[in-house]
Design brief:
heterotetramer, A: alpha/beta, TIM Barrel, 6-stranded parallel beta sheet, 3-stranded parallel beta sheet, 9 strands, globular, C: alpha/beta, 6-stranded mixed beta sheet, 4-stranded parallel beta sheet, 43% helix, Trp_synthase_suA (chains A, B), RibuloseP-bd_barrel (chains A, B), lyase (chains A, B), amino-acid biosynthesis (chains A, B), tryptophan synthase activity (chains A, B)
Amino acid sequence: MQNRIHQRLQQPEKIVSIYFTAGYPKRDDTLEVIQELVNNGVDMIEVGLPYSDPLADGPTIQQSSTQALKNGMSSQLLFEQLKDLRQITSVPVIVMGYFNAMLQYGVKAFCESCEKCGIDGIIMPDLPIDIYQAEYQSIFEQHQLSFISLITPQTSDERIKQLDEASNSFIYMVSSASTTGSQAGFGQTELDYFKRIHDMRLKNKLIVGFGIKDQTSFDQAAQYTSGCIIGSAYIKHITEHGLRQTKPFIKSLKEQ
Amino acid sequence: MQNRIHQRLQQPEKIVSIYFTAGYPKRDDTLEVIQELVNNGVDMIEVGLPYSDPLADGPTIQQSSTQALKNGMSSQLLFEQLKDLRQITSVPVIVMGYFNAMLQYGVKAFCESCEKCGIDGIIMPDLPIDIYQAEYQSIFEQHQLSFISLITPQTSDERIKQLDEASNSFIYMVSSASTTGSQAGFGQTELDYFKRIHDMRLKNKLIVGFGIKDQTSFDQAAQYTSGCIIGSAYIKHITEHGLRQTKPFIKSLKEQ
Amino acid sequence: GFYGNFGGAFIPEMLYPNVQELNEAYTTILASNDFKKDFNKLLRDYVGRPTPLYFAERLSERYQTKIYLKREDLCHTGAHKINNTVGQILMAKRLGKKRIIAETGAGQHGVATATVCALMGIECVVYMGAVDIKRQAPNVSRMKMLGATVKPATSGSQTLKDATNEAIRDWINNPTDTHYIIGSVVGPHPYPDLVAKLQAVISEEVEQQLFEKEGTKVPDHVIACVGGGSNAAGIYYQFLNNPEVNIIAVEAEGKGILTGESAATTRLGRSGIIHGSKTLLMQNKDGQITEPYSISAGLDYPGIGPMHANLFESKRAEFISVTDEDAMKAGLELSQTEGIIPAIETAHAFAIFKERQFNHDEILVFNCSGRGDKDLQTYTDYFKLID
Amino acid sequence: GFYGNFGGAFIPEMLYPNVQELNEAYTTILASNDFKKDFNKLLRDYVGRPTPLYFAERLSERYQTKIYLKREDLCHTGAHKINNTVGQILMAKRLGKKRIIAETGAGQHGVATATVCALMGIECVVYMGAVDIKRQAPNVSRMKMLGATVKPATSGSQTLKDATNEAIRDWINNPTDTHYIIGSVVGPHPYPDLVAKLQAVISEEVEQQLFEKEGTKVPDHVIACVGGGSNAAGIYYQFLNNPEVNIIAVEAEGKGILTGESAATTRLGRSGIIHGSKTLLMQNKDGQITEPYSISAGLDYPGIGPMHANLFESKRAEFISVTDEDAMKAGLELSQTEGIIPAIETAHAFAIFKERQFNHDEILVFNCSGRGDKDLQTYTDYFKLID
């Protein structure tokens, strides 16, 4: 399999990846946010499919999800909104959500819809790898979709190897054991952790998420990895300033 | 022993006896109420010493007691108020109260004070006869005080004989098993009971209390006994009309 | 019917037949195998006996002594009160009674009575002071859920004492078909003895359980709060004649002995008559009963049972009084140290550590007489637990 | 970790180490003599076990069958919930945890958790929906009396589901020193199994007690209400593999199946994932979890434990749903017939007589899972008990 994620990861430049919640702030903002991100040079995009009970998310993303659901967001609507995605950009796009939404849509149908829109990968934090491997891996692969696992500082080496085995393209490295948006800056503990995983020389690349909010934290994390994902900080920004103010946010991360 | 009660009981006319609460409606009304009663031909008087927890009394007498206590009534004050009692009347006067008040004053001192005022008898519904006989009878007798027991329709013949033995002058026959003021008129059950006790030919005379409120009930009860005690009805009357209106109340009982 | 100089039946003649009927029957009934069988069965299957004897490890460590709690708070309806009402309802049935009356203060005895009446399908009327009806609303709801009629006592201070007066009046007015279930070791003989005997199961169990845990049936101290004194009677009962056992009674001092707002009967009272019994009693010089005060509605009673008056006079028991504040703090301490929220009545017993020290090898048995659910509002307000 | 098609651990990787640690340890710990000794001692001396198996004579007569009540309402803190929290706190200590978190709906599990934390002197944080905090104030007071921190969950419907989300987030953020005590047979494996095994003591006792009373260990029917399903799991456990025993699960229908205000998961739900477990679940077509409704805060949950989903799907259990109205009436009936005021959750189980008849010689064992003190306000308002 060789999709847009793999292609981008082959380039040496560090990746700035942005997470946002589909259907937020307004129902039909999804594609417009993507356009803004692309226009401002973002390297990769995670589109969050909002869920009623987002266990792994902090308050910022949860609130955006609640609002998006109120706005009428759904899996079906998301795929409609993204049907012309590939007419506006070629950056890798990943759908991130909770497994129940996928399950109810039908895993096969969900993957088909993703492929049709030009989605490159799926992050489902609550889909266990053993079940993925036993039941769904072939479907993902059939539709050219990268399965992306998460690891945390508490994940054992043995487990990391299993996750590396199951994953395709990159591993989403949670900077510290915490829900999204709850940490402030990185200390020596996190840096040691980044280095430790880097030194494991896994088959997948590493991208860091959770806790990146400015250029300093970005640079710290990117030192040992292929780049970073920013979620809560971006959502906070557009909540306060509007999605048209995406430019200064991205600029502050990519200034160098 | 031969006191005013015995003397009055020797006369054939039926006795109209009135109960009232000392210190009610006003603290210093005690002697004035007695004067009113005497003026209107009452044959015997029970002066109620108000008590905080009058178990055997209904709401009317209890309320008058509460008010009297608020007015400042006490055993000591009662004896002061009654010190000139015998200058205004020679009708038999009985003190009725609860044993704790007597106990705290001192039984001997209480009896002395009664004698000094010219009191003829004491009704203490909660002083058991065995204790009276064992500890207090000689004191009562020494002070010319009649001890007056109560009986009810539930009192057994054997018990009645014991109470008759302990009592002096008359037995207070409770018309039906009830707290004061809670019954309305007499039926066949009560009349049978009056006759039954009458036919026991006790050494003491009988006077009926509880439930007498008009001439009809008075006549029914007096048929088999030496007379009646009226309490709640009188207190209700002076509460509504004032103690100066004693006359019409007594008249309605003694019309014949 | 006397405990030393205390007890007896100072009742109006109108009550004599009722009390006499009970007096003649109760010892025979209590001794009968038939009664024992029914009583023990209900105590086991319905009340949840035996209640545990629980070794309070953290509290023991804190006070450097061995503290056991007799867990009456785990009884059905939440306090020891039901031991007595189960016994008396069985007695009432044997006496052919068709109607039950009771008085209640905080409402625990009222609930326990309403409960056994529902269990037996017998009419139930509970007298409760109008003031208590307002401040103990949850227990009023419980009684009504159980099908009982709750009648307000509107005389006097409109609290327990007045509810008792009203119940006695009801009994006078209904002398044949009604049994009066008194909730404490108060009232005319035979009630103090009857209630104590029905609560004696508490100390009977303690003996056996302590033997299992400590190899002795004999604690060094048995400790209970005393309002009327039924939970105390229950935990003292088996030890009364054993001088090796020190008996500690804890009274409610309210805001302080000298404040005029107290319910510490042995410190403020003297011999007198209340509710048909000669006992220690808070009263003015004329013998008028004075209004007691305690933050605990169950200790807010101006007398104590005649048995306890005698324990005090004969110096058989050690009497300690604790203030509202110390009791409330002890309640909080027990909650946070052992996970047991006690009734405020019960909390008084646990407040003795401020007054009294014990050796590390002494065995203390507290009667944990009731749970604190009914007192949550008071605790919450007192400690400002909720903003 | 599966019950047929249900169960598993559908959790974010951030939770994997915590859950894995528990999963690797729990069977060993549960099987160890040391744990068993401590657990059984606390169940006996602290919780008050065994709870009675009570033959409800008057209710049996009314419905012409043999009705037994397993009296979990007599447990310390007033419900079966504490069996589980006692077990889990002992487990947490063995895992070296220094901090406990829990979710709670009506507050019973929160109180049971706060209780065992106070008992052990361990820090305790309870997540509770902001709406539930308001409507279950007495239980909030109890938790605070016990020294716990109560944190409001302000997301979603601000009830049990959201409190569970918050607790899981806390666990994610505190992966090493914290143990999460789930209150029901829900959540990722091993929780459903762990909680069911800790509650199994209920049916273990039933077997023995029924044998003493009826000469058989095998009831004809075991009946329980099902929200998440921990009390049901406890009373079914020993009988799951005995086809002679009919298992009846009673769900909360709320205002009626078709009203949109219901919590009858097996009738309204379909397979999905909630709180890390694959089970039956009320959800819209997109898999968004829908808000359940029941008058009982403890049954107001959009899923059921995976064990129960499997009992339903395999037809091993008979599922019945009853409305708010029928449950409330059944609660009143039990109160007035047996003197036992049940929790509204529990009352649902007793409402089956409208739906289901039994032969006069059949033995029914109900799990009387909790007492109704916490629900007095709801009962009072519903039946207008107080003017």
